[in-house]
Amino acid sequence: MDILTTLLLLVHLIPMSTAKDGSSSKSRKRILPDPVTEPRVADPVYEALLYCNIPSVAERSMEGHAPHHFKLISVQVFIRHGDRYPLYAIPKTKRLDIDCTLVANRKPYHPKLEAFVSHMSKGPETAFESPLSSLPPFPNHPLCEMGELTQTGVVQHLQNGQLLRDIYVKKHKLLPADWSADQLYLETTGKSRTLQSGLALLYGFLPDFDWKKIYFRHQPSALFCSGNCYCPLRNQYLEKEQRRQYLLRLKNSQLEKTYGEMARVVGIPTKQLRAANPVDSLLCHFCHNVSFPCTRSGCIDMGHFKVIRMHQIEDEKERREKKLYLRYSLLGAHPILNQTISRMQRAAEGRKDELFALYSAHDVTLSPVLSALGLSEARFPRFAARLIFELWQDREKPSEHSVRILYNGVDVTFHTAFCQDHHRRSPKPMCPLENFVRFVKRDMFVALDSSGTNYYDACHMEGI
Fold it and tell me: Is 81 a catalytic residue?
């Protein structure tokens, strides 16, 4: 069975249910397990399809939903870059032939794609923070380079931007028609795929894309920790987590057998194949409906792919149980979450700058943030994943402010560690801002069993 047939069968066989309010549960099942719509046992092909996030019809989302007496005053968006060419190549196999130029009449399509290319071709009229100025504003290679954003990745974020524009700009008037540069805060890592993803989202989002008002700051760290990146204890937890992953791999005899079979196909030692991280390349084959690599010795097939993906699912399960990654995440995500609450507090005080913040990042950015927030059941960040923090003011009690957190359009506020019990004690539909502030300022350190009450002390505790 080829990949396309598998995808079609998968799409048609996944049961769909309808919520009481008439909305489809399609978007919800993508975030947290849903016993009504999920396969009864973990399905690596199903999970891979969700990970690809193949652009299709506009998805339903819960962004911007609140009682009429609440006013939206601030939005902060964290995205993972869109679909990309692999970062690793499987040795001795033909290079994956994917075109990274943007062609308006080629699938996947978006109504704004042609205008996006035209606008980006003019080039920024103001320089971004170094080294971003040297990066191209859109992908443009007939044969993709390693890690380069694809047309699929651009379309994914044009869709994200359009969706957020309909909600935040058209409905809630978050940005005025004469919006100014200081009302945006834009930050990205120094990779072309993150800068280009951010530009695609902004092009879909802004009421009028004006280069003079677009300024991206460069973030050297994938954790977006800015000047607070030195944290010895965080690194110790990461090392222990990597050791846990290694030991789990050693125990999986089926995985070892699969790597051995694949290594024989391509004619290299098993260790060399594993070091080439073949799943990264295989996921690109899968997402783009391209047959897996073949040589004179045979083919890598769907069976091999399923075994590797199933191990990843089992690894994520053990990761949640062992808690090492959680401890790494609490320290890794603290600087950016601290910046998030600081911006919210300024907005609550009446500041009108940085009404919309965008962080264009990676899976290794979003995953620790999700874990630190207590969203342990959230799926691993798919291509073009979005995590959104909304700040609302109660018009009836203007001094009261509330937070909503949404992951890929699903409201996960009451799944977070700091607000999972709030709705049982209060009839209010959102989480008080002070809950989130207390979590970042105090409870994250309590969760570490730390004697420290601040980030520096927690990072420099002796031993683990």
Answer: yes
